[in-house]
Specification:
Helices cover 38% and strands 12% of the residues. The protein is an alpha/beta fold. It has a seven-stranded mixed sheet, sandwiched between helices. It starts with 11 loop residues before the first helix and ends in a 5-residue tail after the last helix. Homodimer.
């Protein structure tokens, strides 16, 4: 097990609180499921999750035995062919999807294109595609592209204004496309209420779960979510460029038309038929030959969640972000840092964002002191916590180091 670097001098009350919270942490042992570098406080798992210990032996086996020895027979003998649906179901278990509705593969951007286009096709005659003006760029670009392709108009409506917008214009809306967690601020939106508002308007709800899956309990089936996408490389720790996933609720399978009817989504791929006939169910959302090395690395990474109760993950994540906010208020607010992540636990994802004009230089300086966070232009420092491995003591160390580098650099942090 790795340990965090020794903390610089901290107020005794914060130090004692961090130590007590870590000592009482029911998830503490899960940290051993990750290979974290020593002397590093890693708070960027909301961008790239660290390496799970289960991954290297699996990747070695895939390389040396499955590919190296078993060669092409592996498509069947080592379960390569079924991997997109098998890994999809493993992700489905983390987002509250019963088996048979989730497929893993491609990138989030590709899955978003498929989901947006398929959603528009499921609501013919409706002319609006509604999305968050602050959505991650790829979500915004693809909404525009799908709208152009389908002859729809895009409306950019902040989540708080969505119910009111739908009351007025909902009869024209085909799909609403949002993320439960704002990637910049870490604000958590009410997925249940927004999904219900979409349905009351007769629209479909599409969620981008990149910043939520693996970080908090999700229940796409019971909320009645229509479609969802997400990446494999953030809280799922599936590795750089890990395959993404697409969830389509079973009730939409029969009418599901995907814009990328590739051969692996065919009902009988090896018949090599002249015409495309979609496979039954979500399998038709497969496109081309799956990236097996990445897919099986992701599958191994997901075992870090074996036996883990996501309500406990959420409770610890809130404890971590709450503690970080308290440390920031005490130690960083006097230096010009402002928390933009809501203090209300019900409105907080699994990251804390602080505003400071020197965000870029400070993030780089922090990295030199063993604390890995990231920044978003122009002035946000982002600190992602993952309850599977982050400790309260690491967060105190991060805040103290940030205080020290900010003090050393003066008021604007440059
Ligand atoms: C909400 C959200 N959607 C999508 C993406 C990225 O999409 P892709 O996996 O295709 O690069 C990100 C990346 O950070 C993201 O935060």
């Amino acid at each position: 097990m790795t340990t965090a670097p020794a903390a610089p001098t901290a107020p005794a009350a914060l130090r004692e609180r961090a130590a007590r919270l870590d000592a009482d942490d029911p998830l503490a042992a899960l940290r051993d499921r990750f290979l974290l570098p020593p002397d590093t406080v890693y708070l960027d798992g909301n961008s790239l999750g660290p390496l799970p210990a289960a991954v290297p032996p699996v990747v070695r086996d895939v390389l040396t035995r499955q590919w190296g020895t078993d060669l092409i027979a592996s498509w069947h003998t080592n379960g390569w062919w079924e991997a997109p649906l098998r890994v999809g179901d493993a992700i489905g278990a983390l987002i509250g999807a019963a088996p048979g509705q989730t497929v893993a593969g491609d990138s989030t951007s590709v899955q978003l294109f498929t989901a947006l286009d398929a959603a528009a096709a499921l609501r013919p005659g409706r002319t609006l595609l509604v999305t968050d003006p602050e959505h991650f760029p790829t979500d915004r670009y693809l909404a525009e592209a799908v709208a152009r392709r389908r002859g729809l108009d895009v409306r950019r409506v902040p989540p708080a204004a969505l119910p009111g917008f739908l009351d007025a214009e909902g009869h024209r809306v085909a799909v609403v496309s949002y993320s439960p967690v704002d990637f910049r601020t870490g604000e958590l939106y009410d997925m249940r209420a927004l999904t219900r508002a979409a349905h009351q308007a007769g629209a479909l709800a599409l969620w981008d779960l990149c910043h939520a899956a693996g970080a908090l309990p999700l229940d796409v089936d019971s909320l009645g979510v229509d479609l969802a996408v997400g990446c494999g490389y953030k809280f799922l720790s599936g590795g750089p460029g890990a395959p993404a996933y697409l969830y389509v609720a079973r009730r939409h399978h029969a009418g599901l038309e995907t814009p990328l009817p590739g051969w692996t989504g065919h009902a009988d791929p090896f018949a090599m038929a002249p015409q495309y006939t979609p496979a039954p169910g979500v399998a038709r959302a497969r496109v081309g030959t799956p990236a097996i090395l990445s897919l099986l690395a992701l599958e191994a990474a997901l075992t870090a969640f074996d036996g883990v109760d996501l309500t406990e993950v959420r409770a610890k994540s809130l404890s971590l972000t709450g503690f970080f906010l308290r440390c920031a208020e005490e130690l960083l607010a006097p230096l010009g840092f402002t928390a933009v992540t809501p203090a209300d636990p019900g409105r907080r994802g699994s990251q804390v964002s602080l505003r400071h004009p020197g965000a870029r230089a400070l993030t780089a300086a922090l990295a030199e002191h063993g604390v890995i966070a990231d920044m978003r232009v122009p002035d946000l420092l982002r600190f992602g916590v993952n309850a599977l491995y982050t400790t309260h003591q690491e967060l105190l160390t991060a805040v103290l180091r940030l205080r020290d580098v900010a003090r050393a650099r003066g008021a604007d942090g440059s």
